Input
Amino acid sequence: MLKTLASSADKAEIVRRLGALRPDSARQWGRMSAHQMVCHLSDGYRMLTDRRVAALAPFPLPRGAIKLLALYLPVNWRANLPTTPELDQAGAGTKPADFALDIAELMRLLDAITIDPERYADGPLHPLFGRMSASDWMRWAYLHADHHLRQFGL
Output
């Protein structure tokens, strides 16, 4: 079974892994610090709550096909994938402030997006994948967190 934040067990796994993250956790790839990654994940979840808007990125391939491959093939996302400017902490993304407060906000957002996932069925467009169902969003939310937690060896 594919993991998703719609599953309480899968959400608990992400929360546990986030609990092991420290401000000085060393990255395995990429350029984000652990604290920037926390803010990056929060910005991603803010897309769902309409508190952050990310423009649809130009993409040469059919979005539906890419979405299916990225979300439903049982493989890890590759390292060093570029992010959209609105979610980039070196650009327009939320800047890290206080690690404990930023982690608390991420946990609050995790709770907020998982209370009623169906409300995202006609939600915002994903910057790469376009229109997504509620189950697509919950799958993406899990994979996005998993990808970045693996970035820090968690």
About this structure: The first helix runs from residue 8 to 19. The chain has one domain: 34-151.
